[in-house]
Every structure is written in C-alpha cells, then in structure tokens.
Amino acid sequence: MFVGVIAAASVTLAVSDAAAQRASERRVANPGETQFDVQLLRPTGGPVVPIFEGWFRNPDGTFELSFGFFNVNTEEVIEVPLGAENFIEPAEYHGMQPTRFEPVPDRDRRHVGAFTVTVPADFGDRDVVWTIRSKGQTLSVPGRLTSSAYELAGWDFPGRTTLSPLVRWTEDGPSGRGPRGIVADAVEAKAGMPVELGAWISRDEVAADDERPINVKWFKHQGTGEVTFEERITSVERDVWSAEGGTRVATSVTFAEPGEYLLRFLAFNVLREFEFQCCWTNAYLPVTVTQ
User: Fold this and answer.
1) What pTM was computed for the model?
2) Does the pLDDT of residue 131 top 90, yes or no?
3) Of 22, 82, 88, 223, which residue is 20 to 30 A from 140 by alpha carbon distance?
4) % of the chain at pLDDT higher than 70
C-alpha cells in the first residue's frame, strides 16, 4: 500500500513537470500572434526571442533565410553558447547564429537580420528552426520559403537607388553585400593584447548618387569572453568612402580570454531602413585568441 502511494505521487510529479515544460516551450509565433511585442520590454530578467525576418533569392538559385533576435531586456546582456540551449535544426544549418544577445538597440526595437542560413534551390516547404533557451523559457522560430509575404529584397530597396554598402575584408579581396554578407579568413590574437581589425567599405556605381554616410558598428557575435572595441561605432562621410577602392574602417579590439570568437561588422545607411528590411551588410571575422 505504501509503495502504491509513492508510485501515484511519482506519476503526479511527472505530469506536473511535463505540463510546466510544455508551458515554457513554444514556437514563435503561434497562429494569430506576432514574433515581436514591445510590451515585453523590461530592464532585466526577460528571455531572448528568435525572429525570422524573411527570405530572399540568391543569383545562383539558392535562398537565404534571414534571422534576427529580440532581447526583451533594456539593460541585461544575455549569453547563450552554441549547443543544447542555442541550436538550429536541421543540424547542417547550425553554427552561424549569435551567442551574445545585446539589449534593445538605441532608437530601435530589436536586432534585425543578424545572420542568414543558405538553403538549396529545391528546399521546398521544409523548415529551418532556431531554438533559444534563456531565462527559463524555450522559444523557437521556423524559417521557411512558403509565404510570399516574407519575401525580401535582399540588398536593395525596390524603386529607389539605395543599396546595401559593399564590404571587403582585404583591399583587393571579394566584396559582400546584404544580410548574407561575407566571411573572412580567420585571424589570430592574444588575450589581453589589443589588435587592430578592420574592413573596407564602399558603394558601387549603381548607388553612386547616394551621398549619405556609411555607418559601421562592431559586435561580438560569438565567443566565451568579453570583447572590447576601442571605437565600436563609426560614421564614414561620402568624401571618405567614395575614394577609389573605398576606405578601410578599423578599430582596436581586446579579447579578455582565449578561445574561438566570431565578430560581426555591420555596415548600414540609416536606422530607419531596417524597418523595411533594407539596406545593410553583415561581414563576419573569425578570431582565434591564444593565451
């Protein structure tokens, strides 16, 4: 009889735990919901919401699924390493998502298009699902090609001359443009020792009439330790970026700990264009930091 009571209690506990788990795990967004809700803002204690921005076509026939995120905190930075709490399925698409989630940006609501996933031309109606577990909540969002309402321009703004800036990691190297951007070859640095890192920015002839500055911001995209940028945000005027071959924008970067890092170099025109999913370029720099 005593054993039976214990068994009953165990079943009740298991059911309660399962219900609690289901309550804390859901997909963003459910039918009729939005992926973003400004009412969730708070100073600290809130989770990170993964967001599917939409998809666009590549010239080679493949597609890009663009993802951003919404750290609902206005003050707290959340770090979620790659793995069981920050993963993409199918596993072949895992690895480019951020692990550092900064609070809501100044004069903005969330971080738009932080990375993309490239899927083949015959991807069809399958999903790429990004899951983040933070602050006791598990939230996931599917990226898919099935809705034309989520089709993006990619790197230009239809009907206007504005385009995403061009970014190169070396003066004579290939350039990238748009959310997919370009990934550099890995570089090395020593923990605690400042190192100068930079990229080349410009606009091409199609956007020659765009005389606005090109704005630049650095991010620690992935990595275990703190990263300090001497000059994290820069605005480059036309008379500088329009020089033949563009201009190099560099800053001194210090890594507090050894490890593998991925920095994101974001080049954009103006903040308000993010609302229209235009026009910025992501560039990624892997850094191996030794003792």
Assistant:
1) 0.86
2) yes
3) 223
4) 84
| 123 and 234 assigned to the same domain | no
Is the C-alpha dihedral spanning 270, 276, 281, 287 positive or negative?
A: positive
Q: In Å, how far from its chain's centre is CA 63?
A: 17
Supply the pLDDT for residue 160. Answer: 67
- Kind and range of the H or E run holding 11: helix 2-24
* H or E segment and range at residue 253: strand 247-255
Q: Please state, in angstroms and rounded to a whole number, the distance separating the CA atoms of residues 87 and 90.
A: 9
Domain annotation covers residue 158: no
Distances, alpha carbon 259 to alpha carbons 3, 72, 99, in Å? 52, 28, 14
Give the residue carrying structure tokens 């076509």. 57
CB under 8 Å to 120, separation ≥6 — which residues? Answer: 62, 63
Give the CA dihedral 233, 280, 68, 143, nearest 10 degrees: -160
Where does the pLDDT of residue 126 fall: very low under 50, low under 70, confident under 90, or very high at 90 and above?
A: very high
> Nearest to residue 101, comparing CAs of 124, 133, 123?
133
Task: Identify the domain boundary among 150, 181, 209.
Answer: 150
Surface-to-core class of residue 170, CB atoms within 10 Å of its CB (0-12 exposed, 13-18 middle, 19+ buried): exposed
- What are the helix (H) ranges across 45-105? none
Contact in structure between 150 and 52 (CB atoms under 8 Å)? yes
Three-state SS for 207?
A: helix
232 vs 253: CA distance, rounded Å: 9
Interatomic CA distance for residues 288 and 291, integer angstroms: 10
Which of 101-115, 133-147, 209-223 has the lowest average pLDDT?
101-115
